Amino acid sequence: MKKSKESIFKSKLAWAVVAELLILLVAGILEPNFFHIEYNATTGMFYGSLIDIVNRSAEITIIAMGMTMVIALGGTDISVGALVAVAGAFALKLLRWDVTLYPTPGDYTIKPFILVILVPLLICTAMGLFNGVLIGKFKLQPIIATLILMVAGRGIAQIATNGKQFTTGYTPFRFIGQGSMFGLPFPIVITIVVCAAVMIFVRKTAFGTFVESVGVNPNASRVTGLKSDKIIMIVYTLTGFLSGVAGLIYSSRISSCDSNNAGVNYEMDAILAVVLGGTSMTGGKFSLVGTIIGSLIIRTITTLVYYFGITSESIMAFKAVIILIVIVIQSEPVGKWLATRQARRQKVGELRG
Question: What pTM was computed for the model?
């Protein structure tokens, strides 16, 4: 029992769960209707703040699943936000193709819808592979390698759309970000499927162990016969693909492409979600479940800020304060202090007993 309590105090995942519950508790105390969920028979969808939190966290959660493994390798990927813009730009380009020939957006697509989905995903996957090759084969520093596409990605998106902001009313495409299934917003369904697929791939195969091994010591992994460069390329390629999925959801939500603003700061939110979930920036062991919780924490804070009418200019500062508190609580010194304090109380209790 004693060991289990100490392990809880040392668990960053446990503290992430506690942090999320405390934030929700504060929201519930300040506004009891915060937890209210209702069903709209017309749209066939559930509505409420909790639903909105999970729904609006979809893009960051999906990207953060890939970012978790990137950070587990001891790396980082600051190009994911730009890839979100690239995916949206190419999707809308295929839907509208040329706004001078088709000036009025409507419920139509110029190119087959399958291409609208596959082409952006393939392009983002190729961009992820590009990052992986630079880092795995050419041994560039991850932040330098991914900086290339962070800068160039939005330029590529602008070139694809000739600097224009395309809009669409095509129902199947809008369904991705605005539709519903099983009473839930469709982005939530996509997130569940993506997270489950990544978890199965990583945890039900040896791949997750390979990632952790390379993250701890790439040279030792290479000596044991593990091809670390291929592991790195696979991880960055997967992250590129997941960024493309997030880009399709984002552009579907707004029924448009916005190459300047799509995915802005997504890389920072994804990294924060991973860190809040308990994965160390130094590489090694990682927690995909923790990352999901970290993403929910970020979105819960944002929703709470909007819900209580805090000015948008204060959102970043408000979010930073709460995240700072959570990270400090999760830190190793605080964990050790709490575990030691709990052990002392346990010992005092045994002596008194």
Answer: 0.91
What is the per-residue DSSP string for 57-94? THHHHHHHHHHHHHHHTT-----HHHHHHHHHHHHHHH
Residue count of the chain: 353
Q: Give the three-class secondary structure for 250.
A: helix
Domains of the chain in sequence order = 2-346 (1.10.3470)
- 45 φ, ψ (degrees, to nearest 5): -135, 145
**Rounded distance between C-alpha atoms, residue 250 and residue 263, angstroms:** 8
Residue 10 class from Cβ within 10 Å (0-12 exposed, 13-18 middle, 19+ buried)? middle
Distances (CA, A) of 307 to 12, 31, 53, 284, 315: 28, 9, 11, 38, 12
CA atoms within 13 A on the CB side of 241: 15
In this structure, what are the phi and psi dihedrals at residue 233, rounded to the nearest 5 degrees? -65, -40
- Write phi, then psi, for 48 (nearest 5 degrees): 155, 165
Tell me the pLDDT tens digit for each residue of 100-150. Answer: 788 888 999 999 999 999 999 999 999 999 999 999 999 999 999 999 999
Give the C-alpha separation, 282 to 75, whole Å.
Answer: 8
**Which stretches of 58-185 are DSSP H helices?**
58-72, 80-96, 113-136, 142-160, 171-178
Cβ proximity of 258 and 158 under 8 Å? no
Cα 280 to Cα 14, 40, 94: the distances in Å are 15, 42, 40
Task: Output the average pLDDT for the chain.
Answer: 88
In which residue are the tokens 């390629």 written?
Answer: 237
Which residue has tokens 């961009």?
Answer: 127
Radius of gyration of the chain measured on its C-alpha atoms: 22
Residue 42 predicted with pLDDT over 90: no
